[in-house]
Amino acid sequence: MLKQHALKMIAILSTVIAFTVCTADSIPAQQKEGESAKPAAKKTEGTKAPAKRKVRLPNHYGKLNLTDDQREKIYKIQKDYKAQIDSLKKQLAEIDAKKDAECAEVLSASQKSILGEILEQIEKKKAAKKKN
Fold it and tell me: What is the largest CA-CA distance in the chain?
């Protein structure tokens, strides 16, 4: 009974870790895709090129032929919410770390060792993937 419970906990923890690694790995890929899809800035005679923005329009808004005024309003809205979103992301990361720590407390020493080996293998695979 105890062995089955331990196996279930390992399976659950492995699933959670795999999900976390997969989602964390996809974030840089999404950022790289977004960088290559930047439209070229249009220049007209007698006007300065606008300063490069770090913010982007929401998905598919670039296809809507927005006016400069609409773009500026959208950029302002994004700027207004950025601090709140960043704060929530930080809180989520802290809660996630706390959850992971509590889950690890449930494990035995041997399970923690096995988990450490699994995580080490995952890190090696990620490092090898980055090199390619």
Answer: 79
